[in-house]
């Protein structure tokens, strides 16, 4: 492939990596990871609420990795409540999983920036082997993509398997019990998915630029080496 086209491809990949780093950093600090509604089960049972009457007992909840907000509905109007994971909810959430999600988000940002730098270096500089050459580009893209996948898997397990929304809804609730009525992943979660796909796309762009995958040997080089060995 001509050098000018390679520069364009590497520039595109670098810009995408940098955009992913910014997007992940922005997503990390928002509370738009999960949005849903909670049902005040105790209040609904006390009045035998059915049909449209249940709407008076359905509140809202949304949260991210550091803080969130829920609106408590038990028939007397909505009462908003702000909360933070550190240190308020640290005792009721799966702390190891939650901290791992934050850690992998940080690693994703770092390696997205590193990948963006090396893409630009290969576009405008003189690339050399190992970490600055094609092997390094594959490495940074693979690490960033893997971290994004781990973030989604760990956070999904925290929300769905460990019932994070219910634990938050029942935080500091004595006589009332809340159940998750509906929940869905919000914008910040899907930003992580898009970033993972972008880093996978970057690996394809590297291949499109003419670089072989790491540890792959061409058949021609093996044939030439074999012919040389026969000469000696």
From TrEMBL:
BP terms from Gene Ontology:
equilibrioception; sensory perception of sound
Q: Name one GO cellular component term.
A: membrane
Does the record carry Ligase as a key word? no
Localization: Membrane
Which superkingdom heads the taxonomic lineage of this protein's source? Eukaryota
Task: Give the membrane topology.
Answer: Multi-pass membrane protein
Q: Where are the transmembrane segments?
A: 97-123, 135-155, 189-209
Which PROSITE patterns does the protein's record reference? PROKAR_LIPOPROTEIN (PS51257)
Keyword list (alphabetical) reads: Membrane, Transmembrane, Transmembrane helix
Family from the record? Belongs to the clarin family.
Full protein name: CLRN1 protein
List the gene name: Clrn1
């Amino acid at each position: 492939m001509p050098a000018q086209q390679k520069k364009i491809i590497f520039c595109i990949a670098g810009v995408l990596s940098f955009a992913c780093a910014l997007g992940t950093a922005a997503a990390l600090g928002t509370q738009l990871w999960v949005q849903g509604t909670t049902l005040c089960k105790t209040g609904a049972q006390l009045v035998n609420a059915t049909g449209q009457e249940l709407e008076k007992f359905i509140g809202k909840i949304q949260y991210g990795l550091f803080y969130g907000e829920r609106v408590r509905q038990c028939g007397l109007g909505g009462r908003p409540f702000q909360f933070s994971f550190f240190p308020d909810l640290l005792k009721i959430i799966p702390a190891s999983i939650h901290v791992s999600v934050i850690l992998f988000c940080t690693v994703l940002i770092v390696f997205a920036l590193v990948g963006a730098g090396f893409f630009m270096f290969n576009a405008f500089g003189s690339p050399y082997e190992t970490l600055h050459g094609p092997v390094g580009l594959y490495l940074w893209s693979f690490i960033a993509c893997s971290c994004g996948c781990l973030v989604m898997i760990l956070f999904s397990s925290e929300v769905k398997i460990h019932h994070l929304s219910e634990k938050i809804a029942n935080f500091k609730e004595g006589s009332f019990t809340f159940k998750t009525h509906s929940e869905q992943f919000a914008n910040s979660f899907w930003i992580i998915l898009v970033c993972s796909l972008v880093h996978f796309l970057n690996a394809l762009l590297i291949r499109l630029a003419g670089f072989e995958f790491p540890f792959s040997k061409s058949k021609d080089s093996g044939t030439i080496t074999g012919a040389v060995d026969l000469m000696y």
